[in-house]
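Subject: for your reference before the review

Hello V.,

The reviewers asked for a structural picture of the protein, and I figured it would be easier to keep everything in one thread rather than splitting it across files. Below is the amino acid sequence we used in the manuscript, unchanged from the supplementary table.
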Amino acid sequence: MFMDTQNNDRQDRYYMFILKYFNELKQSFVTTEDILNHEFYYALQFFTHEQDHIDTSVIDNYDHMEEVIEDIQDQDYLLTLITLQWRSLYLLGHTMDRSKDWFLLAFERLVFLNRKNIFYFRGVPQKVTLISYHKNVFLIDRDIKQIVTLHSNGYVKAVNYILDENGNEKISKETEEFLNVSVMSDLLEDLAKTFHDYDDELTTDDGQWNLSIENHLGIEYEYYGPFVKTTHHELKELSEVLRELLDDDSLYIFDGEPLRDRMERIQIDYHRHTELHLPRFENSQKTVDLHFQEHIMIDRETETLEWTYQISPQCHICHSYHIQDGISYLLDQCSAFDFHDKEELLDDVIDSHESKDYVITINYKYQQQTQITGSFDSQDLPKDYVYFAKLIQEFIEFYGFGEMLNPYVYSQLRHTKGDHIYCKVVFEQSAKTYYYLTDDESICVGDYVIVPVGKDNHEEVVQVVDIEYYQEDTPFPLEKTKKIIAKYQDVELVS
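And here is what came back from the structure prediction:
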């Protein structure tokens, strides 16, 4: 094939050449003479390796040109035909009738033959047009569509549309401004890099975006996709950067975030009341009421999680976590839970001397505050509470309890020069420990590391459960002990 022997730069120029003239030939108001001039011919020669023994009747067969061109698999052969067709029209003065149709089919075939790579962005980005719109027509007070246009000279225009009472689009807001040219250049480059090898995705019911990137040759590359979730990091970050640069939090961009009524604060109050019956005293029934109260609050504004519980009026325990951006991320995850969906209650519940009640209070960015109440048991709690509880537990456990009370810290001996560092590790779903050597003094108990395993030394991830230091009398022969390859998180960061 023609492209197999070309370098990347030549490939890019070839793809842009095909798209440029394919797009121009599709325009109904432009004539063949205007498009396929001498500039076209010179560009064509750069990519054409003319072949001998060409059946010239192919270029004159307008009646069956579609079937003939669709059978061509060799790009060099097709480029040679295009060259001969151009010469017959411009140098030999043959008729122009239907020639535009022939050239359009020929370039359409070239596009098809290069379909795997040709639509990836190439060149220097000059203009970007992003159309973002949601599909919920019932959100009459929200933008139905937004168009953001970015130019390489720094010019930015954003137009927002809503539906009027007749269901027609009308402009609700229009803004124009100029960004720093260097900032705009970096932004356009980031967009171009992101979409250099982007594959279109199916749209969803939430909303979608259409993107057009025009390069320095005037070639437009078009992409589309659904509003992305938090897992699509590149498009998520671009959305946040654009909203920040344009100082407009209402823009949908690629993630449609303003359409998601995010959770700003969640508070869960738990109360257990136990009535204890005591032995008879002076012919009267004595009871004691015990009250246990617990409270979890997660707040986006203060980036704080508070977990408190009161065992008695004289015993109050409080844990407070202030984690910048971490709490916001936690609330974003909580927003996916449905706190209103419960199991059907049983009618024949046995009454006891103990009650456990809860109140869940949720504040959203747009909706009014909502409350869910009930008995704190598996049937009256929200179905998603089990996932919420696990998420909060893992969040708290991740940050641990510091080092001052950790025996692995205060029991640690300072090792001396020449010590061999032996790490005791465990494999997943196994309680048995194994020794591995390391020179990395930053490895701590609890870290995950990559180690060689078996005769073939395949790599596995294990957890360090203890660290020991030896000058001699090592627990396992030094020459037979394998070494840790690296910390697991370090490898993730590099990759």
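For the response letter, the relevant points are probably these. The longest strand covers residues 263-281. Residues 1-6 have pLDDT under 50 and may be disordered.

Happy to draft the paragraph if you're swamped.

O.
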